[in-house]
Amino acid sequence: MVREWLSVLRLGKHKNNSPEVEDLYKSLDSDKMPVHIAIIMDGNGRWATRRGLPRALGHRAGVESLREIVKTCSSLGVGFLTVYAFSTENWKRPAEEVTTLMDLLVEYLNKELKELHHNNVRVKTIGRIDELPAKARDALEVAAAETSQNTGLTLNLALNYGGRNEITEAVKQIGRDASAGVLNPDDIDENIISKYLYTAGMPDPDLLIRPSGEQRISNFLLWQAAYAEFWYCPVLWPDFRRKHLLEAVIDYQNRQRRFGGLHHSKK
Ligand code: IPE
Ligand code: IPE
Ligand code: MG
């Protein structure tokens, strides 16, 4: 914890931080950092359209936000950052937009891998990766393999991800294992189900952020978000900066999580 706090202080002193961001850093409680933050990176299209630009440029601008947020989470000592980058429903978009998104993913991984590795970030994925274009699959495989031994932030890319699809796949596999005699149906409990999800071995998200003003889950982490704290903001993802993340974390730190139990007094 002390090490993490020191890194917060170091980052807080970063020369590019505005006084407002410096103040936000000072308001953070290092003992109450969310272990897992999940973000629905939404609003790229509107960001571009409002500027009279093609949607593709909105997606490109969104990559900059991702860069900054990954760095910030990494230096805050957050354990897991899951970002919704492409849903199982996003295939409904024009083929050209889908291609742009896949190309940007490959470009991001190629350009950023060294830096991610340098920052001790471990890259992982959730979703039906086997259905992505080969170029994207290859880049993801390289990134995951090269960073697999890293012990800092886990950057979890949700790609071709859908919560219902994830649960359906888990049910299928549980059915297979049960009929093969590997799993006794009477032993199935919430822990076992969690182990069959893409997120097996990861803690549930503590804080779920959705920018762009939309207030819906859009098929993201349906099982895992059972007790996540939600944080919405009107800012579009390409405008989402370190400041907004810090605001979300501070808000989270001031909430009382009861998990269905009774109020616990603050320390
Ligand atoms: C999020 O931005 C990126 C993806 C869904 C892949 P959008 O493209 O959904 O942007 P809006 O919601 O149309 O503004
Ligand atoms: C959710 O955003 C998916 C991602 C950000 C990848 P969408 O823009 O696809 O969600 P809806 O259509 O507004 O619910
Ligand atoms: Mg959207």
Keywords:
binds 3-methylbut-3-enyl trihydrogen diphosphate; 13% strand; binds magnesium ion; Undecaprenyl pyrophosphate synthetase; 267 residues
Explain what the structure shows.
The chain has a six-stranded parallel sheet, with helices on both faces. Helices cover 46% and strands 13% of the residues. By secondary structure, the protein is an alpha/beta fold. The protein contains nine helices and six strands; from the N terminus they run H-H-E-H-H-E-H-E-H-E-H-H-E-E-H. It is globular, with a radius of gyration of 19 Å. The protein has a domain at 37-52 and 72-160 and 200-251: Decaprenyl diphosphate synthase-like (Undecaprenyl pyrophosphate synthetase).
Give the class-level CATH name of the domain at 37-52 and 72-160 and 200-251. Answer: Alpha Beta
Topology as H/E string?
Answer: HHEHHEHEHEHHEEH
Name given to the CATH homologous superfamily of the domain at 37-52 and 72-160 and 200-251: Decaprenyl diphosphate synthase-like
Could you give the distance between the termini? 17 Å
Inertia-based shape: globular
- Helicity range of the residues? 40-55%
Neighbour order of strands in the largest sheet: 3-4-2-1-5-6
**Computed CA radius of gyration, to the nearest angstrom:** 19 Å
CATH architecture of the domain at 37-52 and 72-160 and 200-251: 3-Layer(aba) Sandwich
Structural class: alpha/beta
Q: What is the CATH topology assignment of the domain at 37-52 and 72-160 and 200-251?
A: Undecaprenyl pyrophosphate synthetase
Bound molecules: 3-methylbut-3-enyl trihydrogen diphosphate, magnesium ion
> Which parts are unreliable, with pLDDT below 50 for 5 consecutive residues or more?
1-13
Count of individual beta strands: 6
Write down the overall mean pLDDT. Answer: 94
| Number of contiguous helices | 9
Largest sheet: 6 strands, parallel
